[in-house]
Design goal:
Layout lengths: L3 H11 L28 H4 L9 E3 L2 E14 L12 E15 L5 E12 L8 E14 L2 E14 L13 E15 L4 E14 L19 E15 L2 E14 L18 E12 L5 E14 L7 E15 L2 E12 L9 E15 L2 E14 L16 E15 L4 E12 L7 E13 L1
Antiparallel strand pairs: 1-2, 2-3, 2-19, 3-4, 4-5, 5-6, 6-7, 7-8, 8-9, 9-10, 10-11, 11-12, 12-13, 13-14, 14-15, 15-16, 16-17, 17-18, 18-19
């Protein structure tokens, strides 16, 4: 299996410049796949092996470090349709990854990434985000224990699904801990029980629409606990029929919705949920790999004023590699998302993505990506009309695409150029276009 940090180093350049929907999803594994695993690098990156950084190695320990400096332009840095602010951008990124490989395929890994973005013409939108993670897997005979912990320090923008609509970015943190255990039987059946705990906690925006409201964002703090159980039946080597069951509990803190409404006593948004899915995971060596799980999902709120939310749930991906030089990946997700702010209780989010990568030469890689997303918000009870927690039935849409190219000068320096277009909307707002162009110089150890 290829090392995570090698795939992640190039990911800094190949991901879309604009994050559109559920930003945190890109940091975590698919449902029912276990915790602590390393990621596999694309075939197109292996095709440029002569230009990939070697890093530093000491026995079982490998260290890779890379950074990037980018200059670009955005036609709408606030991501709002009312007043458009254009600006150049200066983006600085850094990443360090460490992997230790031991006997019997046991491994431990850690990495940290930092991204600092400056807008000379719109300093309000300046932000520094970072993430760090550690993980490990250990085999006990044929069984495997996996553990991981991830910390994300990010900002939320208005066009993310269910996001609070403010002019300035809303800072927030997410701590995510996971543990899973793969139980191999002597036949074709295996099981993966797992537990995942997430803690969201929000900071204070640098500017707000109304200085008397939304200053304290701690009312959005929440803890999410997911308990999962996956049963797998091996049809072929590395290909399984899947059955997944997952329970979810969401608990909000005791903070009030706003500093000026401490006595309003709005009902709690705590909830419990359950989902059941079945599907197939084909991971055979060959040009086509796919994974699909489909099922049904339920979310019930503690407060009787909030109606149950039910929806089909699906997660599917298809990877096609017709040659060592070209790959196409299609992914689709649909399901219920947890509450984002006081006017959104629960909603369903549908997202489809296409990514195409082609190694044009030993040192040139081209990419194309596109995305479509719709967030559907159901209406809340009419008894809540006129309160900050009343929610209208509404759809929030987005579609976009981008192209990029990377030119490797040697193992340590590469250049890239990218263009992204999207038509987005904020909650209850109209669609509006965003154009982003960026050039990047990437350095690697």
């Amino acid at each position: 299996m290829s090392l995570f940090y090698r795939a992640f180093g190039l990911t800094l350049l190949l991901l879309p410049v604009c994050g559109y929907a559920q930003v945190v999803d890109q940091y975590f594994p698919a449902m029912g796949t276990g915790a602590g695993e390393l990621s596999e690098e694309p075939a197109q990156i292996r095709a440029t092996q002569a230009y990939q950084p070697l890093g530093a190695r000491w026995g079982p320990l490998s260290v890779h470090a890379d950074g990037a400096e980018g200059i670009g332009y955005s036609s709408n840095v606030d991501l709002l349709p009312q007043t458009i602010h254009r600006s150049a951008s200066i983006d600085t990124q850094g990443h360090v990854g460490v992997v230790a490989m031991f006997e019997h395929d046991n491994q431990a890994h850690a990495d940290i990434s930092v991204d600092d973005t400056r807008y000379p013409s719109r300093s309000l939108q300046n932000r520094t985000t970072w993430n760090a993670s550690v993980g490990a897997t250990h085999h006990f005979g044929r069984d495997e224990l996996g553990v991981s912990f991830t910390h994300l320090s990010l900002v939320q923008m208005p066009t993310e699904s269910g996001a609070l609509i403010l002019v300035g970015p809303v800072p927030y943190n997410l701590d995510d801990g996971r543990i899973s255990y793969l139980i191999q039987t002597h036949g074709r059946i295996s099981f993966i029980p797992e537990i995942n705990v997430q803690h969201y906690y929000f900071g204070t925006p640098s500017i707000v629409n109304n200085p008397l409201t939304y200053v304290n964002q701690s009312y959005r703090d929440r803890v999410i606990v997911n308990e999962g159980f996956t049963a797998r039946y091996e049809i072929l080597k590395n290909s399984h029929l899947l059955f997944l069951a997952r329970g979810t509990q969401i608990s909000y803190g005791s903070a009030q919705i706003s500093s000026s409404s401490s006595d309003q006593g709005f009902p709690t948004r705590n909830s419990n949920g359950f989902s059941v899915l079945g599907g197939y995971d084909s991971n055979e060596a060959g040009p086509i790999r796919f994974r699909a799980v489909v099922g049904y999902q339920l979310r019930a709120y503690s407060a009787a004023l909030y109606e149950r939310v039910t929806s089909p749930i699906a997660e599917a991906s298809l990877r096609w590699e017709p040659t060592r030089l070209t790959s196409a990946v299609v992914s689709v997700t649909h399901g219920i998302e947890d509450s984002a702010f006081e006017s959104v209780l629960g909603y369903t989010n549908t997202q489809a993505q296409l990514t195409v990568t082609h190694a044009f030469a030993r040192n040139i890689v081209f990419g194309f990506h596109s995305e479509v997303r719709q967030a559907s918000y159901p209406s809340t009870s009419s008894k809540l009309a006129g309160t900050p927690i009343y929610q209208q039935a509404h759809n929030q849409n987005m579609y976009g695409f981008g192209i990029n190219g990377t030119f490797y000068l040697n193992r340590h320096i590469s250049l890239s150029l990218s263009y992204d277009y999207s038509s987005q909307s904020a909650y209850l707002g109209p669609m509006f276009p965003v154009h982003v162009v960026q050039g990047v110089v990437h350095f690697a150890l």
